[in-house]
C-alpha cells in the first residue's frame, strides 16, 4: 500500500504542497493540462529549482496580472461543478474550497452562500487548490498522513487588515485536528494549506514503510531557524491494513441484580462522559438468574473514569478492562444542501477511498421536524444531495 507522509516541520501552504508533488514526480504538464480546462485565464504556471538552507526544492510560481479578485464560494463551486475534469479531482477541489468557505462563514457569522473569498478567490489560490487535486490524483497514494501542524504567534496582513496568527480561518479549519505550538513569528500554515491537509490526510507520526521517494516544495520566505520547505515522503507501508487503527479499552461486567431503570440512566451517563459505545446483552447466569452483560468501548485514557461510573452507579462489584487494537474507517462529518435545508452526512473512508456515506440521524430528524416531511424522505434527499459532492468509490 502506497503512503504519502507530509513532514510539516516548516508548515504547509498551497504552493508548497504543489511544489512537493512535482518534486515527487508529478509532471508539470499534467497539472497545466488539467488547469487549462478551468474557465480561468491570464496566468502562467512555471516551476523553478531553488534552495532553502542548501536543500534543493521545487518552487511553483503563478504569474498573473490579477491582484485581488473577490469571488464568492458559490461562484467557485459552480465553476468547478461545470468543469470537465476527472470527477474525483473536481470533488476534492470542491471539498477543499467548501472547507475554507465553511470556516470563513463561521468567522464572519454569515451563510456559506454569502462568503466572499479574497486571497483564496484569486487566480494563484485557485491554481494551487485545483492543481493540488490534479497532482494528488496523478500520484494516487492509498493513504496520506500528515504530521501535526505548527501554529505560530504574531500577525499577518490580508484583505481584511492585520490579523493575529494563527489566522482565524486556519484555526477554524484545524478545529479537532492535532497541532503543535511553534516559536516562529511568521505564518507557517496558511488557510489553503490547512484545508488541503485537513481534507486529504489523517494526522499522526511517520508510519513504518519502505521509502521510495522524497520531495521538497518551497515556500516564499527564507526562515532563519529552518529551511522553509514542505517535505513529502512517498513509500510502501509494511502494514497490509489500509484503513486507520487506534487503541481502545473495552470495559465489561455481568449484572444479575440490576434495576433496568438504573441501567438506562447509566448508559446515558457513560455516553455523556465520553464512552465511544455502550451496549447491553442478555445472559443466563449462575443460580439460573437472567442477567445483563454491560460492554463499554472507550479511549484508553478514559477507562478508569468510566469504570468508576459503572462501579458507583450499578450493582457491579468489579469491572474487567481489556486494551486492544481497533481497525476502523476514517470518518468525516460534512454538511450538504438539500431542497429543504442543510443536513449533515457521515463519510467513511478506506484510505483515500470514500466507501460509504450515511445521513446523520439527529440532523435529519431536526430537518424533518422543521419541514413537516417524513424522516425517510429527508434521508433520501440527503443521500442524493451528497452524491455529486462525495462520489462513493468502494
Helix and strand layout, with pairings?
Elements: E1 2-7, H1 14-23, H2 28-35, E2 43-52, E3 55-64, E4 71-72, H3 73-81, H4 87-108, E5 116-117, H5 123-139, E6 143-146, E7 149-151, E8 154-158, E9 161-165, H6 168-173, E10 179-181, H7 191-200, E11 202-203, E12 209-218, E13 229-237, E14 244-255, H8 260-272, E15 277-285, E16 289-298, H9 303-313, E17 320-328, E18 330-338, E19 341-350, E20 353-359, H10 361-371, H11 375-389
InterPro entries: Ni_insertion
Keywords: Lyase, Nickel
Protein name: Putative nickel insertion protein
What is the helical fraction, as a range of percent?
25-40%
User: What's the story with the biggest beta sheet?
Assistant: 5 strands, mixed
Beta-strand residue fraction: 25-35%
Measured between the Cα atoms of the first and last residue, the distance is 16 Å
Arithmetic mean of pLDDT:
89
Shape: globular
The helix tally amounts to 11
The count of strands amounts to 20
Provide a quick synopsis of the model.
By secondary structure, the protein is of the alpha+beta class.
Describe this structure in words.
- This is Putative nickel insertion protein.
- Pfam families: Ni_insertion.
- It comes from Syntrophotalea acetylenica.
- One of its GO terms (molecular function) is lyase activity.
- This protein has about 400 residues and is of the alpha+beta class.
- It folds into 3 domains: about 240 residues, no CATH class; about 80 residues, Alpha-Beta Plaits, CATH 3.30.70; about 60 residues, Ubiquitin-like (UB roll) (Roll), CATH 3.10.20.
- Helix content is about 35%, strand content about 35%.
- Helix 2 packs across helix 5, helix 3 packs antiparallel against helix 4 and helix 10 crosses helix 11.
- The longest helix is centred in the N-terminal third of the chain and has 22 residues.
Amino acid at each position: 500500500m502506497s503512503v504519502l507522509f507530509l513532514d510539516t516541520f516548516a508548515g504547509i501552504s498551497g504552493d508548497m504542497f504543489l511544489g512537493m508533488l512535482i518534486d515527487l514526480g508529478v509532471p508539470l504538464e499534467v497539472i497545466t493540462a488539467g488547469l487549462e480546462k478551468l474557465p480561468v485565464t491570464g496566468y502562467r504556471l512555471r516551476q523553478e529549482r531553488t534552495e532553502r538552507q542548501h536543500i534543493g526544492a521545487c518552487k511553483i510560481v503563478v504569474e498573473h496580472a490579477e491582484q485581488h479578485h473577490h469571488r464568492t464560494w458559490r461562484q467557485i463551486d459552480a465553476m468547478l461543478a461545470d468543469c470537465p475534469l476527472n470527477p474525483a479531482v473536481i470533488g476534492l477541489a470542491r471539498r477543499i474550497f467548501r472547507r475554507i468557505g465553511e470556516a470563513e462563514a463561521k468567522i464572519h457569522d454569515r451563510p456559506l452562500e454569502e462568503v466572499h473569498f479574497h486571497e483564496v478567490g484569486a487566480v494563484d489560490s485557485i491554481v494551487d487548490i485545483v492543481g493540488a487535486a490534479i497532482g494528488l490524483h496523478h500520484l494516487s497514494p492509498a493513504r496520506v498522513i500528515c504530521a501535526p501542524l505548527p501554529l505560530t504567534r504574531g500577525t499577518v496582513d490580508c484583505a481584511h487588515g492585520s490579523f493575529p496568527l494563527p489566522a482565524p480561518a486556519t484555526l477554524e479549519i484545524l478545529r479537532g485536528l492535532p497541532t503543535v505550538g511553534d516559536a516562529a513569528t511568521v505564518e507557517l500554515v496558511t488557510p489553503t494549506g490547512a484545508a488541503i491537509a485537513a481534507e486529504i490526510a489523517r494526522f499522526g507520526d511517520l508510519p513504518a514503510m519502505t521509502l521510495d521517494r522524497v520531495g521538497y516544495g518551497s515556500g516564499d520566505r527564507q526562515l532563519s531557524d529552518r529551511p522553509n520547505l514542505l517535505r513529502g515522503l512517498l513509500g510502501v507501508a509494511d502494514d497490509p491494513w489500509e484503513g486507520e487503527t487506534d487503541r481502545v479499552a473495552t470495559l465489561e461486567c455481568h449484572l444479575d441484580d440490576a434495576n433496568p431503570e438504573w441501567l438506562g440512566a447509566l448508559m446515558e451517563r457513560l455516553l455523556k462522559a465520553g464512552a465511544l459505545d455502550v451496549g447491553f446483552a442478555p445472559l443466563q447466569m449462575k443460580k439460573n438468574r437472567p442477567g445483563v452483560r454491560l460492554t463499554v468501548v472507550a479511549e484508553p485514557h478514559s477507562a478508569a473514569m468510566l469504570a468508576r461510573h459503572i462501579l458507583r452507579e450499578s450493582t457491579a462489584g468489579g469491572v474487567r478492562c481489556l486494551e486492544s487494537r481497533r481497525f476502523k474507517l476514517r470518518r468525516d462529518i460534512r454538511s450538504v444542501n438539500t431542497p429543504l435545508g442543510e443536513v449533515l452526512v457521515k463519510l467513511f473512508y478506506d484510505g483515500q477511498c470514500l466507501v460509504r456515506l450515511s445521513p446523520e440521524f439527529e440532523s435529519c430528524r431536526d430537518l424533518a421536524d422543521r419541514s413537516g416531511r417524513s424522516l425517510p424522505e429527508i434521508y433520501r434527499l440527503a443521500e442524493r444531495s451528497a452524491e455529486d459532492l462525495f462520489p462513493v468509490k468502494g
